Automatic annotation (TrEMBL):
Major localization class: membrane
Membrane protein topology class: Multi-pass membrane protein
Protein name: Isoprenylcysteine carboxylmethyltransferase family protein
UniProt keyword Membrane, yes or no: yes
Alphabetical keyword list: Membrane, Methyltransferase, Transferase, Transmembrane, Transmembrane helix
An annotated GO cellular component: membrane
Organism, scientific name: Rhizobium leguminosarum bv. viciae
Molecular-function annotations in GO: protein C-terminal S-isoprenylcysteine carboxyl O-methyltransferase activity
Coiled-coil features, chain-numbered ranges: none
Compartments (UniProt record): Membrane
NCBIfam families in the cross-refs: isopcys_mtase (NF040696)
Any one GO BP annotation for this protein: methylation
Length: 197
């Protein structure tokens, strides 16, 4: 069977999304058992989460299922698909390590849980927000895997909206809870790209 690069890219993307769901599910179930002490959910945060879901799952999923918008397609290259596959694998590795390191502290929204701890080990020793790093890598991999200007770029746009609507609020919340410890941690680490940003 002779598979085209476009089909392989779509299959890798689908497998990556399935992997994302498999990784997140047990942590989401466990997190529901830990009481929330403070919830900072806001309209802008919901907008960011919807944008990320739309850009990283709904728009590309619609494209993979229907081929629409076909007018935005371009010719894929095997080397581009390979880069996309590697990026998606790295994204899922960071995503899983981040969840594992957070453990009972993990939350999909801006929440402080009972006995919340400041995590500075594992991927958190390199960046303050490795979960966003994994989303950035997912968005980049999507741009490589899906040879369509709309579906491919939707992930980066969705990630950017989530990141810029939420990261400042998240850091303010952590400063309120952990004070000087978090400020010292901020001084030693970058936000999402080690040594750069």
């Amino acid at each position: 069977m002779n598979l085209s690069a476009a089909v392989v890219g779509e299959v890798v993307w689908v497998l990556g999304i399935v992997g994302w769901c498999i990784i997140r599910y047990p942590f989401e179930r466990r997190a529901k058992r830990v009481p929330v002490v403070s919830n900072r959910r806001s309209g802008s945060e919901v907008l960011g989460l919807v944008s990320a879901l739309g850009g990283l799952a709904i728009v590309p999923g619609f494209y993979v299922a229907t081929g629409i918008p076909e007018a935005a397609d371009y010719v894929p290259r095997w080397w581009v698909i390979l880069i996309g596959g590697i990026l998606f694998w790295v994204a899922m590795w960071v995503f899983r390590r981040t969840h594992k390191q957070l453990g009972r502290n993990w939350s999909i929204t801006l929440e402080i849980r009972q006995q919340h701890e400041l995590i500075c080990a594992g991927p958190y020793s390199l960046v303050r927000h490795p979960m966003y790093t994994s989303f950035l890598l997912m968005g980049l991999s999507q741009a490589f895997l899906l040879p369509n200007w709309v579906a491919g770029m939707a992930g980066l746009i969705g990630f950017a909206v989530l990141f810029f609507l939420r990261v400042d609020k998240e850091e303010r919340m952590m400063l309120e809870v952990f004070g000087p410890r978090y400020r010292a941690y901020m001084a030693k680490t970058k936000r999402i790209i080690p040594y750069l940003y």
